[in-house]
Write a structure and sequence with these properties.
Structural class: alpha+beta
Order of helices and strands: EHEEHEHEHEEE
Shape: globular
CATH topology: Beta-Lactamase
Oligomer: single chain
Distance between the termini: 36 Å
CATH superfamily: PAS domain
Largest sheet: 6 strands, antiparallel
Helix content: 25-40%
Strand content: 25-35%
CATH architecture: 2-Layer Sandwich
Radius of gyration: 14 Å
CATH class: Alpha Beta
Number of domains: 1
């Protein structure tokens, strides 16, 4: 169930602000993997506009934004998404994968996901920077 955006820690607010200025696609998730934001360049790749007033739970956005293993073509589970691995393991992840756009086209994507750790070691969320892999 999509829910209204809750008040966020200042670190997430600042990360969101930075993302809004980047020319590279980037999205931000909270500590439970809930989708908090993605920027305009990400909209162009993903094929969806982001509703800034909403927070989307992991299970819901994982079924909307479909990712596939670039080697086998098999769908990734939400737990296999690089940004979820960055949250779970509290370390960066970098990978190549396929993203299925709303029109059914599959794009080769390169993604780097980085956990956001606050003062005292608190897991705040993670960011993913991604782009279409034009070398594939």
């Amino acid at each position: 169930m999509i829910r209204p955006m809750a008040q966020q820690p200042i670190e997430l607010i600042l990360t969101r602000q930075l993302a809004s200025y980047l020319a590279t696609p980037m999205f931000l998730v909270g500590p439970e993997g809930e989708l908090l934001f993605y920027n305009e360049p990400a909209e162009a790749v993903l094929g969806y506009r982001f509703d800034e007033a909403l927070e989307i739970p992991l299970e819901e956005w994982a079924s909307t934004y479909q990712l596939f293993n670039s080697s086998t073509g098999e769908p990734l589970t939400a737990d296999e998404f690089p940004v979820v691995a960055a949250l779970r393991e509290r370390r960066p992840h970098h990978t190549s994968l396929l993203y299925q756009r709303p029109d059914g086209a599959r794009l080769p994507i390169v993604a780097t996901s980085i956990p956001l750790i606050g003062g005292g070691g608190e897991l705040l969320g993670a960011v993913a920077v991604f782009w279409e892999d034009t070398q594939s």
